[in-house]
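Lesson 9: reading folded outputs for more than one chain in a single document. The general rule is that every protein is listed as its sequence immediately followed by its structure tokens, and records are never interleaved. Here is the first one.
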Amino acid sequence: MSQVILDVVRGIAQAAANSYDGAHDENGDPVEIGLKREKGHPVHDSRHMDGFKVRVDGNHMIVTYQYDLQLKDVYGGKLETELEQTMEDITRHLKKEYKKITGNTLSLSSAGEVDAHVQKISNVRVTCTANKTYKVNSFENVVDKLEPSSDKLDKNFKNFLEQGGWGNKPKNKDQQGQHKS
């Protein structure tokens, strides 16, 4: 792994770490990401349970967003667009935070749409876990796991296999491991 890739991964990790619930910026103001937990008064209103995490896999960054909602919100028909908007808010915040930390820009491009998994908790509440994959454009010479594999056998090993490798049987019984009695 090159130093450039390591610095990008560390910057992404630090940007995500600076985004915990209750975080404040350098002016003492609460950090606003665009999550549901930020709406309303923290004491007087019932708060939504939501949060996100980020992981890097090859040359992709995967954002996972988890939150609890009511069953009627799932059937409202706006869940997918709401999740897309939330993912855009999260990545916008991560890019801004990454720029503050490293001084460099983080270039991401979407590698697909949101993949959501909704599970029933009760007859009223459900939990939703959504993933979205982004390609990190600054990663060079990183093997993409999503690409088909190619034949990368060593020349000496190929020659060994062409000469018979493990496929040929030995000619006499002593070489097969059988003993004469």
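And here is the second record, again sequence then tokens.
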Amino acid sequence: MECVAGSKLPGIFCLEGAWAKRLDDRTSVLPTLESLERLRLATYIHRDVGTEEELYHYLDKWAQAGYRQYGVLFFAFHGIRGGIQVGRGTVTLDDLAVRLDGKAASRIVYFGSCSVMKDRSGVANFQKATRAKLVCGYTKDVDWVESSAFDTILLSRLVEDLRIDARVNRLRARYPDLVTMLGFTNHPQFDRTAK
């Protein structure tokens, strides 16, 4: 994607949980987002989230018309099958679907979280309830460095101005080993022959 000077970049709205218990741990997806912005591929909003209240507050903000430019919602949390870990608790796909009911229409939701996508029926229900055009993420527990590299590639594809099925299929074709290793999947599934 080439960006014309002065034009608006597509946006990523990232909510990130704590990765470690120590307050001096600086592990974050922020360098990935900064890299995409420096390459003029996307702009971003990044918020640290420590409680369910904060999570829901920021989801309500993302749903507002003023944030439509941020077409990719990126959950960067520890994950489990069918949910993300926020603070000391778990927020399920059902919980998120209730909060985002119909508010993700024509937008993309990316769970950059281990194992969330293992719950295929939960993901399908989430996608239907939120009306997201794509929900994607991992079915496995993933390595930080490998998933960070994949995040950079994936997010750069998700903000491109092409059909979503073509973007995902091109990613799968170019990086099949990473896709398999990380258990990357998406809903809805696309015909792999679509270009």
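What the second record shows: The helical segments are 30-38, 52-62, 93-99, 120-130, 144-158, 164-174, 176-182.
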